[in-house]
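Lab notes, practical 5.
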Amino acid sequence: MNAPATATNLKPQQFKSDVKPVWCPGCGDYTVLSSITKALAALEVRPENVAVVSGIGCSSRIPAYTTCYGFHGVHGRALAAATGLKVARPDLTVIAAGGDGDGYSIGGNHFLHACRRNVDLTYIVMDNRVYGMTKGQPSPTTEPDWDSKLSPHGTGLREFHPLVIALASGANFIARATSSDPNGTADLITQAVRHPGFSFIEVLSPCVTFRPEQRSWKDMVHPAPVEPTDDPARAARRLMTDDGFNIGVLFAGHRKPYRPEASASPKRVAELEAEFVL
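Output from the prediction step:
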């Protein structure tokens, strides 16, 4: 950990581990992984100075497929672990990765408060609007009329709108990307990591196994018709009329990131244990 934080001439391949991904053929997460490694190479950070944190789900396998430090946590708790890590080790580049089920359902409360706390980390959510690992249940972002064997005639429930929630909760950078454009996604991830505070990127990543109709997403996405804004009110109006397929940076704010004061002299484990002796 004493190596320089940055290095020049790094290649994306240097951030890929020897572990072979086990996603279904055609899964959008393959290209998201590629985008992450391209972004890290562009940022010129060394693998040992990056931590990738995840919860449970198809997309949460990401840490194993990188050469960075990784933490594969429990369902919905990726942001809790990532926040604690960044606060304890502000020198690290911390990226949390997950899916719409992990991040917005069981992890929904952590999502709200990670946005509110505005710790300097990046959260990448691969949204396919379905629970892919557990065989196709509707997720919080699933359309109410999506008919499947596990939800005949649909759930009838309004979708969760993560970008709107992120803005209302205080995220400092909000963007949407698509797995059909790995270079564009890599560029957005690079911008997100460089932007101070909590950065959130929703990546439209089709599940071709349980939602094969999502193959058409590549023809539906389009650049956002307006420039990014730092005005929350303007961003709110933009997001409330969003069709779900606008790609690009939608909000880039100026909130000061949360950084607790560092202790002048780190305590030894024995000293910490002594504080809890009754």
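Observations recorded by the TA: The first helix runs from residue 29 to 43. The beta strands are 50-54, 69-72, 93-99, 122-127, 173-178, 199-204, 222-223, 246-252.
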